[in-house]
Design goal:
This protein has 186 residues and is α+β, with helices and mostly antiparallel strands. The protein contains five helices and ten strands, in the order ααββαββαββαββββ. β8 and β9 form a beta hairpin. It is extended. The two termini are 12 Å apart.
Length: 186
């Protein structure tokens, strides 16, 4: 986990300011004879729409050039996945057999993420630094650029520890986020 952690963060986390910065309506909607939406005729954009598009492009570029840290909440307690990843591992990496310990002595472990240098402009903060009440993490106003929360399961390895699979996810709100099944190989 220590070796792949910076890549996991880069590939799963995002700056939600860009994610929720939707472009404005630009042009006139086109419908077919049955009234179904077909597309947009951008040649019929109004002066106001052109101005809003220009403002949106400027705002988007400003966000992209912003070098401030993007804060991500992270729970360092890494647990086994709720689903059995053995099947996914063996299906994805043909001719491999998953390593199954005789007994799972540790259901979870604490990942010391603070000593790991990340590649990008993300900064992880322990989930305990955020409100614990349901949904308040998303409703609280912060004095930093809070973008979301990331999580990962333990890695299910093959018998030789050459291949592995884990689950991960990035949440950016109560109803916003995405999950990932991540395959790794040495």
């Amino acid at each position: 986990m220590t070796e792949i952690f910076p890549s996991l963060i880069d590939s799963t986390c995002m700056d939600t300011r860009l994610f929720i910065n939707f472009p404005p309506e630009y042009g006139e909607s086109i419908y077919d004879k049955t009234g179904h939406y077909v597309g947009v005729d951008s040649t019929k954009a109004t002066k106001e729409q052109k101005q809003k598009l220009l403002e949106w492009k400027i705002k988007t570029e400003k966000i992209k050039k912003d070098t401030s840290k993007i804060v991500i909440a992270f729970n360092p307690v890494i647990e086994y996945s709720n689903e059995d990843l053995k099947e996914y591992l063996e299906k994805h990496f043909k001719n491999t057999k998953a390593f199954i310990p005789k007994e799972k002595i540790y259901n979870e472990y604490i990942f010391d993420f603070q000593k790991i240098k990340l590649n990008n402009r993300y900064q992880l903060r322990h989930i305990n630094h955020f409100p614990k009440e349901r949904g308040m993490i998303w409703l609280t106003k912060y004095n930093f650029n809070f973008s979301g929360a990331v999580f990962f399961s333990r890695i299910q390895f093959d018998q030789n520890k050459k291949f592995g699979v884990l689950n991960g996810g990035f949440a950016c709100g109560g109803l916003c986020g995405q999950g990932f099944r991540i395959y790794i190989k040495k």
